[in-house]
Each structure stands twice: as C-alpha cells, then as structure tokens.
Amino acid sequence: MSVRAHTVAFEGVEARPVEVQCALSPGMPSFSIVGLPDKAVSEARERVRAAIGALGLALPSKRITVNLSPADLPKEGSHFDLPIALALLAALSVVPPELVAQTVALGELSLDGTLVPVIGALPAALAAAGAQKSLLCPERCGAEAAWVGATDVIGANSLRAVIQHYSGEHPIAPASPGEAQRAASTRDMADVKGQERAKRALEIAAAGRHHLLMVGAPGAGKSMLAKRLPGILPPLSAVEALETSMIHSLAGLIDAGGISRDRPFQEPHHTASMAAIVGGGKGAKPGQISLAHNGVLFMDEFPEFPRTVLETLRQPIETGDVVVARANAHMRYPCRFLLVAAANPCKCGMMFDAAQACSRAPNCGEDYMGRISGPLLDRFDLRIDVPAVSFTDLDLPATGETSTVIGARVAAARARQDERYAQAPDVHVNADVEGALLEEVAAPDNEGRALIQQAAERFSLSARGYHRVLKVARTIADLAGEQHVLRSHLAEALSYRLPASGS
User: How far apart are CA 180 and CA 256, in angstroms?
Assistant: First the structure.
C-alpha cells in the first residue's frame, strides 16, 4: 500500500499539482525517486535520509519507492524535499496519513532537519487554496504565502516541528501576512530643472501606461527623469500586488514575506542577454520584462541593446505576456509594463553640437537610430527630444511641481479609467483599449477628426499609429478632466507622435 502527499511543480507563474506517492515493499534496501526528477530532486533522498536520521529514526530495511505524479511532468527544485519526507513519515506511521493528504507541502531540508526557504511559496498557496488544502512551508516563507488569505499556512522551522504539529504535541499557529512595504523615495520630479516637455510626457505616460522614447544629448537628464517616474505612479492595487509578487516569488525577490505596493522599476544593462530580458535560461525563469509587470522597464542606451533583444520586445508590448519556449519547458509569464527608452542621437551623442560632433555627422545619427527597427519604433506612443539644459537653468532654484502634485493628477486620471473600464475584461488603462471600445471612448469631435486625418496623410501614420494617437489623446483628456476628446487633446497627442529630431 502507498501513501500520498501533495506539492506543486512550477510552470511559469502557474503551480501544477504534484502527487508524491511513497511505497514500502520487500526487497533489497534502496531508496528510489521516479517521475522525471532533475538532479536537485534526485538528491533529495540523501537530504531526507539524513534529516530523518537526525530525528533518531531509521529507515526500514525495505525497498522505498517515491513516485512524483504526473510522471511525464518535469520536476525541478529543492522544494520537493519536505513532501517526500512527509510521504515517507506517513508510510512509517510517524505522522497521520490522512492529515498529510490534506496538505500541500514545499520546502528544502538541511541535513539536521532544518527547513530552508524556497521560491514560489505564494503561487503554491494559491494552488493549495484552489485544491481546498492547507499549505505547509518553511517558517520564513509563511508570511509571504499567507497573503493569499484563502487557506491556512503553516510555517515550520524544522522537520521535528512538523511531526510535533501533526501529532498534536505542539500545534503551529497559522502564519500571518507580512507587512505591505512602501519604499521611501528621495527622488522627486522637482529636482529636475527645465525639461518641462519631458515632464509632461512622463505624466501622460504614467496616466495611461504609454511607452515613451526619449532622445537627447548625454547629460540632458534622460535617466534622471526616468528614475523619477515611479514616484508619480499610483501604488499597486491588491490584485496587481498579488500578480507582481507571484512573479517576484518565483524569482526569489520577496524579502521577509512583505509584499510591496510600489510599482517595480527594472533597468537592465544594455549588455543583458535575451534570456535575461525576455526570460529563459535554466528552468525558463522570468526575465526583466516580467519582473517589471505592472511597473516600469527602463532601457537606457536603447540602440546599444542587441538587435535580437530589441525585436523580441515587439510581441510582449502588444500582448502583455511572453511565452518562453524551450525543448523541455513552455512557460507563459505576464508582462504588462511601461517601457521607457532613452537614447543619444548618435554614437558620440554630439550630433547637434557642431563644435563637438564627429566628422560623420549627420549620417552617424541615421545609422545609430537605424538600429531601432520601424515596427518597434511604431510601438512607442510618445517620442520626445530632451535637449541639453543650459547653465542658466541649472543655476536657478528648483521651482517645478513635485512628484506628489503630479502623482495626484495621475491618480485622478487612473481613477477615471478604472470607472470607465470597470466592465471591460482585460482593459485596465487607456493603453489596453482596442477595437470598437477605442472608437467609443476616444471618438474625436469634427475638428479633431479633420486634424488627425490631415496628420495621417501628411506623416503616413500607420493604423497602429492612428490608434495610439487616439489612446494618448484619451489620456490627455482624462488628465484634463474632460469627458470627450477635443481637438486640443489630439493636437498634443500628435506632437508626441511625430518623429523626434534625433530619430
């Protein structure tokens, strides 16, 4: 007869249920794990053997077989240690099998029986709640998993504590969620002197989650502006915080069980590989675009990224998710991010300064910006020039609006969008609107229609470009508190759509 414990295997952000079956049978003493285990799972037998031995228990002189079902699903990670140990202890009648069968377990075992934190506690808790089971995990993962709130989470610090809990000797109280963290930012939009047009573009981008391309000379403040964007974004909602934290849990980035309400800000270096940006590598892990889900992805020195990396961004920008396909893995990760790209106008960056420009100007600018393909450039809703700031502006005291003031306008615009799209599935902000709904909510007046028609003919706007102008105009109207899209809103939206002088 075999006993059963339960755990999960991770496929993207989804936790697939896995049944751990343990059988003791006569024969030569052995300990086998089957069911497509990777090296870490296969080595679990030695960790389990040592941890049970540390309790003063000895494995029977029998043939021990552990099967991880479904057997055709690859099993990866050290979190299978605890469920394997539980199944074996239940087979030895050390813990009640019926209680083990009502629990989803995950955790790594030290040789002395201590439970070591593992990644993925949050999605595992969601899977346990869906199966109407409790979750057993290492104590340091309990506060993270408890955020689900739909099932009991038992956080134990050792295998001995697990046995005492199941025997009723020392029951473990369910874990409580960690604190919702808000990082104190010292970066304020008021620190930026000048660049009023760039600040306005950032405000529009934040209000409607519109992708932004900034082109300007070195030292003009592009990075400074981008790093202040999170300060004007509204905090994550409860649903968004859970979505984002599930990805960060799989990446091992959640600290002390606290779920952050701050929007993610990822800034990969331009030498990053495709797997680092999009996802992949061993186990097809989430990349930077998924870690920036519901937040900001800032790509400085945009043309310096490898062409293959830039082109892989085209589909995720449109669909809001990415599929990482490998020979033994097929993972889907959400990636609704706000892309902010910064670039110099040319390789040396001084194309517009005749005294410092290289001998190849202006051809060097065309070659440099030509690294960004037309289809990718078409996906930027906002394109702006960021000119160098004069010393006169730098010498003046800061008088611009603070991030708090700008953030209040952004929050009000987001609130209008939440109300407008409350009944629309998969639509959260203006950047998500498509088809008939876009024509309904962003229909221009007669003057605006004539303007956009003239601009489309003169500047050869693509169908995508036309629709993105409407989305940006809708956001500008929301910032102004207007119910309808007016000609002035379309005119401003078109001014950000026209090619920047450096591109």
Answer: 11
Q: Give CATH 3.30.230.10 domain extents, the chain.
A: 2-167
- What CA dihedral angle connects 126, 127, 130 and 136, to 10 degrees? -90
Which CATH number does 2-167 carry? 3.30.230.10
Mean pLDDT of 353-382: 82
Joined tokens for residue 495 = 């001014």
When mean pLDDT is compared across 188-202, 287-301, 326-340, the lowest value belongs to: 326-340
Q: Which residue has the tokens 């993925």?
A: 120
Give the CATH number of domain 189-497.
3.40.50.300
486 closest CA partner among 429, 447, 458: 447
Q: Distance between CA 192 and CA 221 in Å, rounded?
A: 8
Region label for 20, one of left (φ > 0), alpha (ψ between -120 and 50) or beta (otherwise)? beta
- Other CB atoms closer than 10 Å to residue 129's CB: what's the count? 19
The amino acid present at 27, given as its one-letter code, is G
- Say if strands 212-216 and 265-266 run parallel, antiparallel, or are unpaired: unpaired
Torsion of CA 370, 371, 375, 379, to 10 degrees: -100
Running DSSP on this structure, what letter comes out for residue 158?
B
Strand blocks (E) in 74-149: 103-105, 108-109, 115-116, 134-138
pLDDT band at 268 (very low <50, low <70, confident <90, very high): very high
pLDDT digits (tens, 9 = 90+) for 140-189: 999 999 999 899 999 999 999 999 999 999 999 999 987 776 676 778 99
Q: Which tens digits make up the pLDDT trace of 395-423? A: 777 778 999 999 999 999 999 999 999 99
CATH 3.40.50.300 positions along the chain are: 189-497
Please, what is the end-to-end C-alpha distance for the chain in angstroms? 71
Which amino acid is present at 52? I
As a 3-state breakdown, the chain gives helix, strand, coil percent values, each rounded to 5, of 40, 20, 40
